[in-house]
């Protein structure tokens, strides 16, 4: 009799832990998107030794993951970029807005050596409030600029990038 009670208690504890773990994991979602953007560069300084610029970028995301997370979201991104010799680094912020009007603000950084950007959410509205996560972005294509790419003020760049990451909504 005592053995059965002990087994029942152990079974209840194990089932409770399994349910807790599955609920905690259900909050984390993987995603993969294609993001296509138009960027307008504002060059501060450009020589072979040193380049400093900012860019203002607008675009749209398309989900390529079965979850369809971030499908048809739009974005506005601002970045500061520095190039010393052949090495470039950048950092900035993006506001990404869902079709329902809720949004996430991401902070990102990257460099030409890794050829990727890493972003983390720092603010969200509605269901995205308190969101955590990380994503990696890498350019997959660049189109011919609308204006000649002279690296003069207001140079335009059109490109798409692949983003892979995860987010976790607050419990």
Give an account of the 3D structure.
The radius of gyration is 22 Å and the shape is elongated. It has an eight-stranded antiparallel barrel. Helix content is 15%, strand content 58%. It has one helix and eight strands, in the order αββββββββ. It has one domain: AOC barrel-like, CATH 2.40.350. The protein is mainly beta and 171 residues long. About 3% of the residues have low confidence. A hairpin with a 2-residue loop joins β3 and β4.
Walk me through the topology.
Blueprint: H1 2-26, E1 28-46, E2 50-63, E3 74-84, E4 87-97, E5 103-111, E6 116-124, E7 132-143, E8 155-168
Antiparallel strand pairs: 1-2, 1-8, 2-3, 3-4, 4-5, 5-6, 6-7, 7-8
């Amino acid at each position: 009799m005592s053995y059965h009670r002990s087994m029942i208690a152990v079974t209840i504890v194990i089932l409770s832990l399994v349910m807790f773990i599955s609920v905690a994991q259900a909050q984390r979602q993987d995603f993969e998107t294609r993001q296509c953007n138009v960027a307008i560069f504002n060059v501060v300084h450009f020589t072979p030794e040193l380049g400093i610029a900012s860019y203002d970028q607008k675009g749209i995301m398309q989900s390529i993951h079965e979850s369809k997370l971030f499908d048809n979201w739009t974005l506005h991104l601002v970045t500061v970029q520095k190039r010393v010799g052949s090495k470039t680094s950048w950092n900035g912020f993006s506001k990404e807005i869902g079709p329902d009007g809720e949004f996430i603000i991401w902070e990102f950084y990257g460099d030409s050596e890794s050829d990727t950007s890493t972003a983390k959410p720092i603010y969200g509205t509605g269901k995205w409030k308190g969101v955590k996560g990380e994503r990696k972005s890498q350019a997959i294509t660049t189109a011919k600029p609308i204006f000649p790419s002279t690296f003069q003020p207001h140079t335009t760049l059109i490109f798409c990038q692949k983003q892979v990451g995860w987010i976790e909504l607050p419990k």
